[in-house]
Amino acid sequence: PHQPVERIYITRNFRVDQNLRQTGILLPNANVTLTDLQSGEVYPLTFDQDEYFFRYTGSDLLIEYGHSYRLDVQATIEGSALQAGAVTTVPEAP
Q1: Across 51-63, average pLDDT
Q2: What SS3 state is found at 51?
Q3: CB neighbours (10 Å) of residue 45?
Q4: How confident is the model over 1-41, as pLDDT tens digits?
Q5: Is residue 68 in some structural domain?
Q6: Is residue 37, in this structure, part of any structural domain at all?
Q7: Helices H, strands E: what count in the chain?
């Protein structure tokens, strides 16, 4: 809590027998957002081309104790428009 949002790794799935060195598993063109479910604010995450992860580049988002957050990802993979999402809740302060 009270830290900036960075180092969010988003990758695609791949076959178990696939050579990963020949397959791009990163999704730099994905549309990735983080939503604070208490405030309703939606924060777009940006892909860092040098470090290969997503981060929030603004200064108005800090993760809070007791808040729930939804991560949503939209990407086109092999011609198919796909989306996924997940919710997590930060535990209350000790």
Answers
A1: 93
A2: coil
A3: 23
A4: 888 888 999 998 888 887 776 558 889 999 999 999 999 99
A5: yes
A6: yes
A7: 0, 5
Residue ranges making up the domain that contains 25: 20-89
Strand-strand pairing, 68-77 and 31-36: antiparallel
Q: What is the count of structural domains for the chain?
A: 1
Residue 46 to residue 61: CA distance in whole angstroms: 14
Q: Which amino acid is at 70?
A: R
Q: Is residue 73 part of a domain?
A: yes
For residue 78, tell me if it sits in a domain. yes
Strands 53-55 and 68-77: unpaired
Would you report the helix, strand and coil content of the chain in percent, each value rounded to 5? 5, 40, 55
* Residue (of 64, 42, 47, 58) closest to 8 by Cα position: 47
With pLDDT > 90 as the criterion, what percentage of the chain qualifies? 71
Q: How many CA atoms lie within 13 A of 6 on its CB side?
A: 9
Residue 17: the pLDDT is 85
